[in-house]
Amino acid sequence: MTDIAPAAPATPVPYDAVVLAGGAARRLGGADKPGLRVGGRSLLDRVLAACADAGTTVVVADRRPTARPVLWAREEPPGAGPVAALEAGLRLTDAEHAVVLSADLPFLLSATLRRLLAALGDTGADGALLTDADGRDQPLVAAYRTAALRRELAALAGGPDGLSGLPLRRLTGALKLTRVPDPLASFDCDTWDDLVNARARIREHGHVLDEWISAVKDELGIDLDVDTGVLLDLARDAAHGVARPAAPLTTFLVGYAAAQGKGGPEAVAEAARKAAALALRWEEENTGGKEASSGGPSAPDAG
After folding, report:
1. Rounded to whole angstroms, what are the CA distances from 22 to 63, 70, 113, 214, 224?
2. Which of 106, 110, 168 shows the shortest CA–CA distance to 138?
3. Cβ-count burial of 212 within 10 angstroms (0-12 exposed, 13-18 middle, 19+ buried)?
């Protein structure tokens, strides 16, 4: 009952999100896994940032502070396992599609969820889930049709012990699934070594800037996509053409100007263009640039 399908981006599909964050974290010695930090943000907040487009986000766990508002649910009894937790979370959702996530995915992105939803729609399957680097299914990084989940959950609930203690494979084994390989997005932090590896990866040269910008936007409550290359070029021009401290001050003023105009990325780009042009003019005056070389205005004759 398996289809292998490519995961192509598509028009965003409305969905709700259910995040399971109440596990015992036995391999971490019972530590508060959702609260562990990678790149300055808790694992739970990183997952919540990835599903920020959800119509409703339900976290199944005891309540805790989070970077964005969510609904809270708890399985009965607490600790009854992932199937019971999923059923509790689904009670608070009403979208046709649900993204189901664990709370320990440091590299999950909103683009990953869009790929899963696209694969789900393209194949007509009951669910689309990621597979990890070893090709193993990751049913807690997946998009499902909520009707299919509710159907199978109702069937399992009729058993002698209900949903308590059931493994997820009892649920997913009855579903038609499509797989989307993604070793990075499916990486989860089950052990202390996993956590160390995740923290090291975001500090690698190819990742650290994007990770830092994402963390700052999350911390400040900013939902704005900007061209970081434009801002970096502006900072370089200001530092080179004016003075080194001009770089951070100029980029701050560009952001402030864009915010005053209640603009989005376009307003940031336009403000950055104007400031970069000013820095270039400043440098030309200092180095005797275009005006001097083109026979432009000269100083008054002292005699």
Report:
1. 10, 15, 22, 25, 31
2. 168
3. middle
Nearest-angstrom CA–CA distance, 247 and 259: 19
| Greatest Cα-to-Cα distance within the chain, rounded to the nearest angstrom | 107
Tens-place pLDDT, residues 2-30: 444 444 444 578 999 999 998 766 777 77
Q: How far is CA 296 from the centre of its chain?
A: 53
Nearest C-alpha neighbor of 188 from the set 30, 9, 36, 16: 36
Closest by Cα among 143, 214, 233, 210 to 182: 143
pLDDT at 300 (0 to 100): 41
pLDDT band at 274 (very low <50, low <70, confident <90, very high): confident
Q: In whole angstroms, what is the distance from residue 99 CA to residue 16 CA?
A: 6
pLDDT score recorded for residue 99: 97
Sheet holding 137-145, edge to edge: 2-4, 177-181, 127-131, 137-145, 97-102, 16-20, 57-60, 71-73
Instruction: Tell me the pLDDT tens digit for each residue of 177-226.
Output: 999 999 999 999 989 999 899 888 888 766 777 777 777 777 777 777 77
Report the alpha-carbon distance of residue 119 to residue 103 in Å, rounded: 22
Q: Would you state the structure tokens that stand for residue 14, as one six-digit string?
A: 């409305």
Residue 202 has a CB neighbour count (10 Å cut-off) of 18
Lowest-confidence segment of 3-17, 59-73, 146-160 by average pLDDT = 3-17
Q: How many other CB atoms are found less than 10 A from the CB of residue 174?
A: 14
Which region among 50-59, 121-130, 177-186, 276-285 has the lowest average model confidence (pLDDT)? 276-285
Sequence length of the chain is 303
pTM of the model: 0.75
First CA to last CA distance, the chain: 95
Contact 228, 52 (CB under 8 A): no
